[in-house]
Amino acid sequence: MATPLETIKKKRAEAICRIISKGYLSTKRVYVGMATCEVAAGSKEVMEVFDNAIKNGLGDVYLSQKGCAGRCNLEPTVEVVEENKIPVKYGKINAERAREIIERHLKRGEVIEEWVIR
């Protein structure tokens, strides 16, 4: 039987593994608008593009949902937050544009100015 200290160490190691595996320590974060209106505008497909990219090896990226931004005319929206950089909010994103964000912004560091919400 494990000692209390061994049990705590095991639980701590498991928690650290969960934190890392979920991407909570990533230096890049992607938030896809998933409010009802954004889902109706196609954000589910956008979320799937980012999710598949991460599952297929796009590293150091944490993916999550965000709620309504009140900008229905710009939906679906995607926000990219990178360590030590100003967050970038993109509007009118579809699956094709999501793939471009992955290639150009997340992989090469290029902000796609024509899609940025100001």
Strand content is 15-25%
Number of domains: 1
Question: Mind telling me the CATH superfamily name?
Answer: Glutaredoxin
- Low-pLDDT parts are none
Classified by CATH, the class is Alpha Beta
* CATH second-level architecture: 3-Layer(aba) Sandwich
Structural class: alpha+beta
Rg for CA atoms = 17 Å
CATH topology type: Glutaredoxin
What is the helix/strand order? HEHHEEEH
Order of strands across the widest beta sheet?
2-1-3-4
Total DSSP helices: 4
Number of strands: 4
Estimated helix fraction? 40-55%
Distance between the termini: 60 Å
How would a crystallographer describe the biggest sheet? 4 strands, mixed
The shape, in one word, is elongated
Provide the residue-averaged pLDDT: 94
Question: What report would you give on this structure?
Answer:
With 118 residues, this protein is α+β, with helices and mostly antiparallel strands. It has one domain: 3-Layer(aba) Sandwich (Glutaredoxin), CATH 3.40.30.10. 42% of the residues lie in helices and 17% in strands. It contains four helices and four strands. A four-stranded mixed sheet has the order 2-1-3-4, covered by helices on one side. Strand 3 and strand 4 form a beta hairpin. Helix 3 crosses helix 4. It is elongated.
List the helices and strands and how they pair.
Blueprint: H1 4-21, E1 28-33, H2 36-41, H3 43-55, E2 61-66, E3 78-82, E4 88-90, H4 95-107
Parallel strand pairs: 1-2
Antiparallel strand pairs: 1-3, 3-4
